[in-house]
# Entry
Amino acid sequence: MNREMLKGKRLLILGGISHMIDVVNTAKNLGVFTIVTDFDSESPAKKISDKSYDISTTDIDALETIGRLERIDGVFSGFEDKNTFNALELCKRLNLPFYATKDQLEVSSNKSKFKEYCKKYNIPTVETYRIDDIKNVEIKDIEYPVIVKPVDNYGSKGITICNNFPELSNAILKAKSFSKTQTYTVEHFYTGYGVEMYYTVQNGKAYLSAMTDRYICDQGFGLPPLPIATMFPSKHLHHYIETIDPFVRDMIVGLEIKNGLVAFQAVLEEANIYLYEMAFRLTGEKHYQIVKKETAIDLLEMMVELAILDSFDLYNISSDKFDAIPLPACNLSLLVKQGKISNIQGIQQLLKIPEVVDYIQQLYTDDTVSTIGDYNQMFIRINIVAANEKRIFEIIDEINSTLKVTSETGENMIITRFSQKMCDVL
# Structure
């Protein structure tokens, strides 16, 4: 019934980045008229949408006018926190449904508030140092290394790893400059690798749709580690289910989340799992593609349904389908160093690999990578689903040997590539 009700509806999509191509195609396949808006006239998703506007997603007054003019039935945002707040405000003005409340978004997008909420539900989090005035900090009270982050930013922007007090002082100034509220958090930096947990919440009940192991690239120089692969399912899935999962489900209930997708990031240190971040939105890994490939449940369709009809019922979620991804899968990320991209080779080869579900290319020929240490270095993300782990790494080896990014000086720009050896070490 809901599928028929979606036909002919009009959806305003905030942001036309490459990730939103999936959203436009999914909505159009459901018979929804798509309208994409942001300040960039060349945004990739605009090129395939039914209509578009060159209006910033932060200009709520202009978007309200467009919303009324276009008689939109819903607003869609995803992949970044700032647009979820913009979408919420716009929906309030237009009297349209939105899946999240302001309180839920503040907990899920603010690292300090999230950790406070975890404590209420006995969920272990990374150790945090309270530093209100750097001049009055006792050096002996801090166990290095620590990681300094703006509390309300994402994509690894403004983050620094510190090994001594002078580095800490500079890192705090940097984190404040990247924070809308000039607030930051100082945490113990765990050298272990990470895990990610993805939940689907349907009618108030949370289901663990996937758990991954997150492998990172350490670029040194105090830069935050960036992901180069997430492997499905996590080696620690059963341990997590037995120890932390019940408390996380209780927290989701406590947040009064009714419907939607929730993701958590955590570090693993000597078999202990410490949560440090939450997202109540679609994430860059696009795990919904892997879930669809393995379970035939299209979570992105459900998010479109939620934006328009305020219901989340296109598919019936059940724990027997969701509590573990049945086949091995990988979200492979390739990072590039600073420089101007002159040549890219091997993209077409990806289309010939049947196990490649999809990929998102974020950088192109003539693009310049001017900063390092954040997601601006992300060249491409590739989702792979295969019959076994051996085949996963055969595909990764093929990608590593064929996909090349060259600078204008002829230098290879791709930094550390993921491999079976890296997976076995951790």
The longest helix spans residues 81-94. The longest strand covers residues 205-217. The mean pLDDT is 90. Residues 296 and 315 are 9 Å apart (CA to CA).
